[in-house]
């Protein structure tokens, strides 16, 4: 039997790829190199990506044998799912693999923003010992507003409750039972924005959520509030956020994601009250291992006829 070709276009742990077994030939390419990607995908039966590779209609058209695209992570906004479906290509992801890591980074960014940790550290490493300009704010007794009460949003709620925060949530699909279970109150978006001292966004990037937090929404926020985005760039409008921060209509922001990635020249990077990380939400050994293993298992199931090795059958995804 000829091997089926699995093209890996973003870095994934080799141990997880071994789970594919002998029926597959694993090939690697840099998905950011468009020319190489288009050439390599021509012989691929399956394509595995993280967030850096864009799988659009052009890639799909260049891949006549492609049966499945596997996203080793949660968000599939880098994949044209409609075009894939039209081409008969199944898209699978690893919806639970990154939850803990993304939630933990969110909590870390909220703390970092509240205490100016990134700017103070940068200053000290440059040889400046200055304490007076880094007076922060406590989380205890403050209100946290969570936009999007899915896996990550709820995992953040559970963790930040331990910091004695009151939690508000907004999600059109959340039920009162979910809110009760997590000790949070469901409110309309406008109320969440105007009442929260810390706001964190955990919705997928879709045509409906791009610009969800824009100029009008930022005008509702307290000038002492902090805003975190560990979901996707563009859900918070970057130009509107920059203006709000410059006009001191917001105390600070913490961003893991950007409208255009890689992002090295956003005006937001020049503001002292912006804490940033380069899309590191899922960048832990545990999350990467789980995401790759989960997506390999989903790929094997989708291709059918392949028995899933025992080692891959054990539940890997941690509860958030
Ligand atoms: N920075 C990073 O490395 C990571 C980022 N992510 C991003 O985080 C997003 C959320 O992940 P999960 O919580 O696992 O997804 P999820 O699918 O479990 O939850 C998303 C929630 O957003 C809600 N929602 C949708 N539209 C909404 C709206 N207009 N207003 C309020 N709520 C809305 C949904 O009802 C759902 O409950 C992913 O789509 C992905 O883009 C995920 C993992 C890592
Ligand atoms: O896989 C990555 O590189 C980032 C993780 C992420 O953004 C996601 O899982 O949606």
Number of strands: 12
Regions with little confidence, pLDDT below 50 for 5+ residues: none
* SSE pattern: EHEHEHEHEHHEHEHEHEHEHEEHH
Give the overall pLDDT as a whole number: 95
Radius of gyration: 21 Å
Structural class: alpha/beta
Query: Which term fits the overall shape?
Result: elongated
* Distinct small molecules: 1,4-dihydronicotinamide adenine dinucleotide, 2-oxoglutaric acid
Strand content: 15-25%
Number of helices: 13
Question: For the terminal residues, how far apart are their CA atoms?
Answer: 41 Å
The main pleated sheet reads as: 7 strands, parallel
Assembly state of the chains shown? single chain
Strand arrangement within the widest β-sheet reads 8-7-6-9-10-11-12
- Percent helix, as a range, is 25-40%
Family: Belongs to the D-isomer specific 2-hydroxyacid dehydrogenase family.
Catalytic activity: (R)-2-hydroxyglutarate + NAD(+) = 2-oxoglutarate + NADH + H(+)
Pfam family, one: 2-Hacid_dh
Keywords: Amino-acid biosynthesis, NAD, Oxidoreductase
How would you characterize the overall build of this protein?
This is 2-oxoglutarate reductase. Its EC number is 1.1.1.399. It is elongated, with a radius of gyration of 21 Å. Helix 8 links the parallel strand 7 (166-170) and strand 8. It has a 7-stranded parallel sheet with strand order 8-7-6-9-10-11-12, with helices on both faces. A 5-stranded parallel sheet has the order 2-1-3-4-5. Helix 5 packs across helix 7 (151-161). It has 320 residues and is of the alpha/beta class. It has helices at 14-18, 34-40, 57-61, 81-86, 99-115, 117-125, 151-161, 176-181, 189-195, 215-218, 238-246, 285-303, 310-313, and strands at 4-8, 24-28, 46-49, 68-71, 90-93, 143-147, 166-170, 184-186, 198-201, 226-229, 252-255, 274-276. 2-oxoglutaric acid binds at residues 50-51, 73-75, 98, 279, 281-282. 2-oxoglutaric acid is lined by residues 50-51, 73-75, 98, 279, 281-282.
């Amino acid at each position: 039997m000829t091997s089926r070709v699995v093209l890996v276009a973003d870095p994934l742990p080799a141990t997880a790829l071994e789970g594919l077994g002998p029926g597959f030939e694993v090939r690697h390419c840099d998905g950011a190199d468009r020319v190489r990607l288009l050439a390599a995908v021509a012989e691929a039966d399956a394509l595995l990506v993280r967030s850096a590779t864009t799988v659009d209609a052009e890639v799909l058209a260049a891949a006549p044998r492609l049966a499945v695209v596997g996203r080793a992570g949660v968000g599939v906004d880098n994949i044209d799912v409609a075009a894939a479906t039209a081409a008969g290509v199944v898209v699978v992801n690893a919806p639970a693999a990154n939850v803990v890591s993304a939630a933990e980074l969110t909590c870390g960014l909220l703390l970092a923003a509240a205490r100016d940790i990134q700017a103070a550290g940068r200053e000290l490493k440059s040889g400046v010992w200055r304490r007076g300009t880094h007076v922060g704010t406590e989380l205890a007794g403050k209100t946290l507003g969570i936009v999007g009460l899915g896996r990550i949003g709820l995992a953040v709620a559970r963790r930040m409750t331990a910091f004695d925060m009151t939690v508000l949530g907004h999600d059109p699909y959340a039920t009162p039972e979910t809110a009760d279970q997590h000790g949070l109150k469901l409110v309309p978006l406008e109320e969440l924005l105007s009442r929260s001292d810390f706001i964190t966004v955990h919705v997928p990037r879709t045509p409906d959520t791009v610009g969800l937090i824009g100029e009008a929404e930022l005008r509702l926020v307290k000038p002492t509030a902090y805003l975190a985005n560990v979901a996707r760039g563009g859900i918070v409008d970057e130009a509107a956020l920059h203006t709000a921060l410059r006009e001191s209509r917001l105390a600070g922001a913490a961003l893991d994601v950007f409208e255009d990635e890689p992002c090295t020249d956003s005006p937001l990077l020049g503001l002292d009250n912006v804490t940033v990380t380069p899309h590191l939400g899922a960048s832990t050994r545990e999350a990467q291992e789980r995401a790759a293993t989960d997506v390999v298992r989903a790929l094997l199931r989708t291709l059918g006829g392949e028995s899933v090795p025992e080692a891959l059958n054990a539940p890997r995804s941690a509860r958030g």
